[in-house]
Each structure stands twice: as structure tokens, then as C-alpha cells.
Amino acid sequence: MTVDLNRPVRRRPLRNRLSSDAGGRWPLARVFAVGASIGALLAVVAVTLGGIAMWRVGQSRAALVDVASPALLSAQQLSVSLLDQETGVRGYNLTGRTEFQDPYRDGLAAQRSTTATLRTLAERRGLEEIGPELDEVERAAQAWRTVYAEPVLAGAPGAPEPARGRALFDEVRAATRALVADLEAQRAAARDRVERASAFLIGIGIAIAAVLAAFLVAAALGLRRYVLRPVSALAGQVRHVVSGDVQQPVQAGGPREIVELGEDVEAMRRHILRDLDDAQAVNRRLDEQARELERSNRDLEQFAYVASHDLQEPLRKVSSFCQLLQRRYSGKLDDRADQYIEFAVDGAQRMQRLINDLLAFSRVGRTTEGFDPVDLGAVAAAAVKQLETVRDETGGKIVVDELPVVVGDRSLLHQLVLNLVGNGLKFHRDGVPPVVHVAAERLGDTWEITVTDNGIGIEPEYADKVFVIFQRLHGRDVYPGTGIGLALAKKIVEFHGGRIVIAASDGPGTTIRFTLPVPAEES
Fold it and tell me: What backbone torsions phi and psi does residue 486 show, to the nearest 5 degrees?
């Protein structure tokens, strides 16, 4: 039964993801735009109300600090200046001493200064209502000075009695008290306006904070309900699909983008189902091929058994009898007969070597149960010892540096080193003793083993061809062999998880590099 794994798998296009259900929903951009517009409107209202409240507080504070309080202070100073004048006049009237005129003159100067200040405040700061009261204070003070104070200070005959002076000054006190009381009332009213403006500002701040908190809560709830919850639900359904439950349909709600994403995932799920069906069909074909390969492997094992036993026995007989013929009749027949017998002996021997090499090549990769720590230094020493005869015949030299310990099959690694070093000795140049150098270098998690010789070398265009089984670059009469050595080396290296290449060389000879993994405990 033939299984065609190259048969193309039928592909179906994904369906259109937009549906009528998603078309009627708001997209996230519109939702966020509406939310941002509402937030901006609330921010404008909050800034406006806050500005108004701050302006009211500033105006009220200015009226209190810059108008009412200075006016009241000036009125109190005016009262003190009038009292100083009365004190000075009374002292002079009682004692006749001129130094009592100084308080009068100082008080008069202070009166004029404070009166000018009050006039300025009344005219420029909105205290026009104190003008008549201030006029009344000045009129009473002027009457007191004209009728009583100035005659007393001038020492004029017939000056009024002190009782007359006290009566006139009482009118001054009454006018001053009325002015101070009015200004105190205005200062209290200004303080009330400041307190009301401050309370309004605090209320506006609390209202803004409350509205902002409500907006944030509403935005959080809306985001959770219309975005996070649909996304979470969609993610849960996707996790079910990822975990293997591909039969469960995927449905999403919320804004348009999430619905469209759900439709994309649903389309992907259906596509995965179709791909899964196709994969199952491919797996069935692979199972069939595996069974075919298993039957083929059994046939190959049977062939190997036949080759190692049934074919070897008659071949050994042919070789043995040909050698007997050669020994018994050598020189007794003509030259052509001797040549024919020699051909038969050589052919039988080459067939034996070829069958043995094929068996060795087929056994590589059968099992990894024999993988153990292997000292490549000891393996290389054993291979060098085995090649002593060839080395002595060629006058060659083998240099082996310190080699690492790797994990693998000792017999296969021995065969690998033996083949590579043996090739370095065999493919030498005429008249030049071969020199083979084996070295190792660690590159990350791999060991790179280099086998370098000074032989005939390999042209770059043949760097891949030499690893193909039975590929020879030279005739059998020039360099003996079956053409399996490098193919066997490649199979052994790849069986151990490495790779082998012919490296570029600056001088004569060949450089072969192969890698082997570093043992796990050394990584």
C-alpha cells in the first residue's frame, strides 16, 4: 500500500468576520469619545464654578482687608486724635502751661490725616455712605474748636466755661461713635461676605469632588461592564479552546471591536477544526506509512540476517575454493588461468568486505541503549594502536591532543576515529610522509573535533559528495576501499546528535570537523 504524504491539504478561506450583530454596536472609539466629552464638559463646568467662587472670595477679602478694616482703623484713630485735642485743651485750661498745647496740635494733625484717608476710602472704595457721618464729625469738631478750644488756647477774655466745652465735645463724641459704629457694621458685613464666599468655594470644591468621584465610579463600572467583562468572558472561552475544547463555540458581547474579535476567534476555531480534521487525516496516512516502514524494516532486518549468514556461507566457500585452486594450480596452468583465479579470489574478498561494511552501516542507529560516557582520548589511542602497521608502512605520524569525554556508543566512536585517521594515512601524497593531527575545542554546548592531514586533499566541489555511500573520487587500483568510510562516519556522527563537514584548508591536505554534544552534567 502506497501512502502519498505530499497530497495537498484542502484549505478553506476564513469567513467574513463582520456580522449584523456587530454592526449595530458602538465602537470603542465612540464610547471613549463620549466619555471624554462628558469628562471635558464636567471639567469646564468645574473650572468655571471654581473660578467664580475664587473671584467671590477675592472680592470679599479685598472689601474686608483693603476697605472695611482700614476705614474702621482710621475712624478709631480719628476718635483718638479728637480725644488728644480735648485732653490738651483741658490741661491748658486748668494749668495754663503751654506744653499742653502740643497734644492739641498733634491731635489736630492726626485728625486731618485720618480724615483725608477716610475721604479717600469713601470716594474710591465704595464707602460713600460714611460721607455724611464724616461731615458731621468734622462739623462738630470744628464747632468745638471755634467756640471753645481756640478761645481757651488764645487766652481771650470772656472764654466759654468748661461746661460749654464739654457739651460741645460730647457732640463730637456722639458723631464719632456713630461713624465708628457704622464702619464696624460694614466690617462685620464684609466679614460675613468673606465667610459666605469661602463656604461657597468649599461647597463648590465638595461638589466638584463628588461629581468627579461619581464620574470615575461610573466610568469604572462602565469600563468593567462594557469592556473588561466582555474581554474576560472572551478570554475564558479562548482558554477553553486553547486547552483543547475546540468544539465549544466562541461568542462575545460588548463594543463592536470585541464582538468582531470574538467573531475572528470563532472563525479561527472553525478553521482549526478543519485543520484538525486535515491533520487527523495526515496522521492516519502517517500511521499507515509507519506500518509500511515497520514492515520494510522487518524485511531489511531479514535481508541483513540473510546477508550475514546465508550469503556469507556460500561466499566463504567460493573464496576458500578459489584460494585452494590458486595454491594448488598456481604455475601449473597458463598465465591467463592464473589471472582468472586471482580475479576470482580478489572479487570474493572484496565482496566479503563490502557485505561487512554494509552490515556495519545498517547497524548504526538501531538503538541508543549503549550510550555511556566515552573517553575519546582512550578511543583515539586504541585506534592509533590499531593503525600502527599502516603508519609504519607509510612512515607517517599521528598526533592526538587531549580529547574530551562524551556520551555515546564506544564501538561506533572507535569506528569513527579509526576511519577518519585511517583515511588521513591512506590518502597521502607520494614521497610525503603522512601527518594526522586530532584536536578538540569546546564551542558552547558542543565539542568540535578536528582531524587534519597533509594528504592529497578534497576539492571543494566534492565536499558533500564524499559523504554519499559508495561515492569514490579515485579508482580502486589507486586507493583501495569500498567507498563507505565517510558515509559511515557521517551516519555515526548524526546518530550521536552532531554534524560533520569538510572544512576549508589553507594548505595541502584535508580538514574534517565533526561535533558531539557536551554531556548534560558539564553543560
Answer: -70, -30
Question: Is beta strand 405-408 parallel, antiparallel or unpaired with respect to 372-375?
Answer: antiparallel
**333-349 pLDDT tens trace:** 677 777 767 767 666 66
**Res 298: pLDDT:** 67
Q: What is d(CA 521, CA 523) in angstroms, rounded to the nearest whole number?
A: 6
Of 226, 250, 276, which one is at a domain's C-terminal end?
226
Give backbone dihedrals phi and psi of 399, rounded to 5 degrees, phi first. -115, 120
Grid coordinates standing for 358?
554494509
d(CA 198, CA 58): 10
Give the phi and the psi of residue 164 in degrees, each rounded to 5: -65, -40
Distance of alpha carbon 390 from alpha carbon 419, whole angstroms? 13
Structural domain total, the chain: 2
Amino acid found at 200: F
Cα gap 114→40, rounded to integer Å:
53
Domain assignment of residue 213, given as a range: 28-226
> Would you state the pLDDT for residue 179?
84
Q: What are the Cα distances from residue 227, in Å, to 99, 221, 233, 251, 252?
A: 92, 10, 10, 15, 11
DSSP structural state of residue 149: I
Per-residue pLDDT reduced to its tens digit, 219-231: 888 777 777 787 7
**Residues 357 and 395: beta-carbon distance below 8 Å:** no
302 domain residue, yes or no: no
In whole angstroms, what is the distance from residue 435 CA to residue 167 CA? 145
What tens digit of pLDDT does each residue of 417-476 get?
Answer: 888 888 888 877 888 889 999 999 998 889 998 998 888 877 777 667 777 765 655 545
Rg of the chain, C-alpha, whole Å: 60
Whole-prediction pTM? 0.43
CATH code for the domain in which residue 506 is found: 3.30.565.10
